[in-house]
Specification:
Number of domains: 2
Largest sheet: 2 strands, parallel
Strand order of the largest sheet: 1-2
Distance between the termini: 38 Å
Shape: globular
CATH superfamily of the largest domain: P-loop containing nucleotide triphosphate hydrolases
């Protein structure tokens, strides 16, 4: 939402949960810290880079602790350091909370985080391997 800060944007899905405003604020703050945006949480999207906005979106996607997360190129606009950080965060959430994570990517570095890799060519699965 262009008129809301990063902190407010991360809290949007939390309004569906029975959490108090203090709990929502604390959780959103922790999520933004986890994606490296503690210094930018009070900035509006127009004051953030594309990569920063993408990290806000990742934080928002984790806000309600989903059981399943579908991520289409979650590191597409990020430099290699931030891409590594996001993938480590997603891997940690997967391992600690048992969240199923489905990632679509063209980046072999991102794909290397997978426990299972399906390769698709022309709409067909051409390989299915456990890593």
């Amino acid at each position: 939402m262009p008129t809301l800060t990063a902190l407010e944007n991360v809290q949007i899905p939390m309004f569906e949960m029975p959490w108090s405003p203090v709990e929502r604020n604390h959780r959103a703050t922790e999520l933004l810290k986890s994606v490296g945006l503690s210094e930018r949480m009070h900035h509006l999207p127009r004051k953030m880079s594309g990569g920063e906005r993408q990290r806000v979106a990742v934080a928002r996607s984790l806000a309600n602790e989903p059981k399943l997360l579908l991520a289409d190129e979650p590191t597409g606009n990020l430099d290699s350091g931030n891409a590594q950080r996001i993938m480590e965060l997603l891997q940690s959430v997967h391992q600690q909370r048992g969240m199923t994570l489905v990632v679509v990517t063209h980046d072999p570095n991102v794909a290397n985080f997978a426990d299972r890799m399906l390769r698709v060519l022309d709409g067909r699965v051409v390989s299915d391997a456990r890593t």
